Amino acid sequence: MEIDGVAPPVPEKPLFEPLKAHEMSDGKVQFRKVSVPPHRYTPLKKAWMEIYSPVYEQMKVDIRMNLKARKVELKTRGDTPDISNLQKCADFVHAFMMGFDVIDAVALLRMDELYVDSFEIKDVKTLKGEHKSRAIGRLSGKGGKTKFSIENATKTRIVLADEKIHILGSFRNIKIARDALCSLILGAPPGKVNSKLRQVTARSAELF
Question: pTM for the complete prediction?
Answer without folding.
Answer: 0.78
